């Protein structure tokens, strides 16, 4: 089946500027029809990687193949790919219809056919039909984003690349468009490669998420993998606030807190050094009252509380340490700053990561 051949394959791809490696050896296969998102902090090399994939920059070394053909030096306009980015690059004095039809016009499609196709794409990106004749500059930010997307589809590319297309939009619109983009991905069957600095955005939309740090891909996997089995402390902490405990190995192979004291951690089958970090997410910690079966118990005092809407987060101080505990609002009734509490978490919720 066609699915067996990756649509895009990267082998040891590097990009250096002087002595600095912005992309420092990336290997990845992207399958037909996949939605892959690359996330990473500012400066981690995401844009540089995407520019190489889209043909705006040639790799310094390594190979990029598209359906088995080497494309390292093939310029952007000669690739069956299309880049959608934040600044959109729409034609400002033209209508929505003219913008979307541009790629069709270049291909010399007759006018009536062009219009029919443009209206199809507008429907696909949920733009009302009467926008066809509207000047694109009179559209809102979200609508412009849809126009850019419709135009990208009009190119009929094999792969669509997205460079933070939603980052300039307000939170609510962004949330709506994230889901629409995922729906659109499903409906179109195209391969999407997306970059963002927001792991949250990546998790909502993607089949697989790749996490970049300093030019390298530290982990790539399903959102579930990244969340439940982060490969490194960096990945776990990139995800959001976590409780982390430096630990060291004991002679019997178990673990103890580096600062001293017991910690119960489920065994892992990956190789670890003599020191590691245990990550416990705030949402897997809980308040314990009465007799408890939690593997790890800590007594402390609530220092502050934060409302997250349906959930509550608490900062709990215990000795020198600060813990974050997040529980459903209903499970938190009556807790206030100053209360003495016992927090508990289970070994199976402890994620052991190498340093
Ligand atoms: P952001 O989220 O801020 O856009 P990014 O992850 O996309 O960051 P890149 O833009 O790929 O990161 O940049 C990676 C590194 O490469 C940065 O340190 C940047 O300064 C450097 N870099 C990128 N382009 C060039 C260039 N043309 N010349 C020199 N250095 C560059």
Please give a quick description of this structure:
The chain is of the alpha+beta class and 355 residues long. It has helices at residues 46-54, 96-106, 111-124, 141-154, 171-188, 199-205, 223-228, 233-238, and strands spanning 8-17, 20-30, 35-39, 61-66, 69-70, 81-85, 159-163, 191-196, 208-213, 216-221, 243-249, 255-257, 275-280, 286-287, 296-307, 311-318, 321-328, 340-345, 351-354.
Structure description:
Strands 6-7-8-3-9-10 form a 6-stranded mixed beta sheet, sandwiched between helices. A 5-stranded antiparallel beta sheet has the order 14-18-15-16-17, with no helix packed on it. α2 packs across α3, α2 runs parallel beside α4 and α3 crosses α4. With about 350 residues, the protein is of the alpha+beta class. The longest helix is centred in the middle third of the chain and has 18 residues. The protein has 2 domains: about 230 residues, Rossmann fold (3-Layer(aba) Sandwich); about 110 residues, Beta Barrel (OB fold (Dihydrolipoamide Acetyltransferase, E2P)), CATH 2.40.50. Adenosine-5'-triphosphate binds next to α1.
Give descriptors for this structure.
single chain; 355 residues; alpha+beta; Rossmann fold; OB fold (Dihydrolipoamide Acetyltransferase, E2P); 6-stranded mixed sheet; 5-stranded antiparallel sheet; 19 strands; 24% helix; globular; binds adenosine-5'-triphosphate; ABC_transporter-like_CS; ABC_transporter-like_ATP-bd
Could you say which structural class the secondary elements and strand pairing correspond to? alpha+beta
CATH superfamily of the largest domain: P-loop containing nucleotide triphosphate hydrolases
- The parts where pLDDT drops under 50 for at least 5 residues are none
Distance between the termini: 40 Å
CATH topology of the largest domain: Rossmann fold
GO cellular component, one term: ATP-binding cassette (ABC) transporter complex
Family: Belongs to the ABC transporter superfamily.
GO molecular function, one term: ATP hydrolysis activity
Keywords: ATP-binding, Nucleotide-binding, Transport
């Amino acid at each position: 089946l066609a699915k067996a051949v990756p649509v895009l394959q990267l082998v040891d791809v590097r990009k250096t500027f002087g002595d600095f490696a912005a992309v420092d050896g990336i290997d990845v296969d992207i399958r037909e029809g996949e939605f892959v998102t690359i996330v990473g902090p500012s400066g981690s090399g995401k844009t540089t990687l995407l520019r190489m994939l889209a043909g705006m920059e040639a790799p310094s070394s390594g190979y990029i193949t598209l359906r088995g053909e080497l494309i390292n030096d093939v310029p952007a306009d000669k690739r069956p790919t299309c880049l959608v980015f934040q600044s959109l690059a729409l034609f400002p004095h033209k209508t929505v219809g003219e913008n979307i039809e541009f790629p069709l016009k270049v291909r010399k499609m007759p006018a009536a056919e062009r219009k029919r196709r443009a209206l199809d794409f507008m429907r696909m990106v949920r733009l009302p039909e009467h926008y066809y004749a509207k000047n694109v500059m009179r559209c809102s930010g979200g609508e412009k984003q849809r126009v850019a997307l419709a135009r990208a589809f009009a190119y009929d590319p094999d792969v669509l690349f997205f460079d933070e297309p939603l980052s300039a939009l307000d939170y609510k619109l962004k949330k709506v468009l994230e889901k629409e983009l995922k729906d659109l991905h499903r409906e179109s069957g195209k391969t999407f490669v997306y970059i963002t600095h927001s792991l949250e955005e990546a998790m909502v939309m993607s089949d697989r998420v790749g996490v970049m740090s300093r030019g390298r891909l530290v982990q790539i996997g399903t959102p579930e993998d990244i969340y439940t089995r982060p490969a490194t402390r960096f990945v776990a902490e990139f995800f959001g606030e976590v409780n982390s405990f430096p630990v060291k190995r004991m002679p019997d192979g178990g673990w103890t807190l580096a600062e001293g004291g017991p910690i119960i951690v489920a065994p892992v089958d990956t190789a670890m050094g003599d020191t590691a970090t245990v990550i416990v997410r705030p949402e897997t910690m809980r308040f314990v009252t009465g007799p408890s079966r939690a593997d790890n118990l800590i007594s402390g005092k609530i220092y502050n509380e934060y409302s997250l809407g349906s959930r509550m987060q608490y900062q709990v101080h215990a000795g020198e340490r600060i813990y974050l505990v997040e529980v459903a609002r209903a499970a938190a009734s009556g807790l206030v700053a100053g209360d003495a509490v016992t927090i508990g978490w289970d070994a199976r919720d402890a994620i052991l990561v190498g340093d």
